[in-house]
Amino acid sequence: MLRKKKTQAIITIQKKYKQLASHLNERSRRIWAATEAKSHGWGGITLVFEATGIAHKTIKKGLAEIDAKKEQGSRRIRKEGGGRKKLKTTYPNLTQSLESLLEPVTRGDPESPLLWTSKSTYNLTEELQKEGFKISQPTVYRELKALGYTLQSNKKTLEGESHPDRNAQFNYIYQKVKNFQECDCPVISVDTKKKENIGNYKNNGQEYSQKGKPVETKGHDFPDKRLGKVAPYGVYDISKNKGWVSVGISYDTAAFAVNSIRSWWYRMGSLLYKNPKKILITADCGGSNGYRVKLWKLELQKLANELNIIIHVSHFPPGTSKWNKIEHRLFSYISKNWRGKPLISRETVVQLIANTKTKKGLEVQAILDENFYEKGTKVSDIEMENINIYNFKFHGEWNYKILPNL
Length: 406
Known about the structure:
This protein has helices at 2-20, 26-39, 44-52, 56-68, 87-90, 94-102, 121-130, 137-146, 166-182, 254-272, 294-307, 325-337, 346-354, 381-385, and strands at 106-107, 116-117, 187-192, 196-197, 229-237, 242-248, 278-283, 310-315, 363-369, 389-391, 399-402. It has three domains: 2-68; 87-146, no CATH class; 166-206 and 218-402, Nucleotidyltransferase, domain 5 (2-Layer Sandwich), CATH 3.30.420. It has 406 residues and is an alpha/beta fold.
């Protein structure tokens, strides 16, 4: 008779639970189970367990909550602080380790906020596990998404045919930058920004103004002979996230490029680095700082002698100028800062550049370089022979250092 009653009670509890189960959360399930067990008196906990499979421990916890009224009026399912700790709490250096695995193999348009990597999430998970992280592939996927990485299709962003040693040179530069940063030596990325017409010309972008009253500009872009153009040459300190721009009013020559680096050192670099033995410059393959430009190397020799510092230079391969850090860490923000604003004077350009800032702490200084730099300066064979240059074994035409002449 007792067994029959017990069986009937189990069936009744099972029916109730089937009707309620989909509507219960973790807390309400244990409270209901405890209430049901309490209504059956002695042996009620076992009865509810046999009917629902809810553990004895969970039912007892519910009974304790009911008796003590610990969480009366609370909407929390678990106690505060319950549950698994966040992965970044357990591994505070996870993001740094993941980014170090990604940086040399990052692909895509470098000026886009979206990035992708040629390493799969499974390979990244395996490498992180080798470093001691207890992490799964879905977690790595979520971390990549949080860092701004996404799956993307191919996009035509290369400026020319890819050099066979393109990726090898990227890795070479990456390792060299890390080595210089470890000894707190300056690492700068240099380039000339696009020349800009000075005057009341339309500047791409939009700015807020009263409806129907846009800023009126000239209807054509013919350069003003009186105001001319400016050539902003930038120096970006990769380690300190600081930028320097010399706004030139003359020709964009190697002499102008090196003088901009000189100005950066005296106005900014020497305040950040105390007596460094060497400087690393990363630059494009062409332009005023191209690897084939003799005047570039001659002017760097003069600077090395003047500062008594060894100047290392690494050029990005042909067709990869957009991968130069200065493009998307300095120039892109300058363009955003002056979008929609006519560059009516040289002083306006300098002020807009100097007021460029980012949420990540980018600071920029700018000056107007009013020196005249002559085009077509010839460098004699004797002058080239006096350049104290050492070409490294791996692509010595791209990777070299210029030592001071004693």
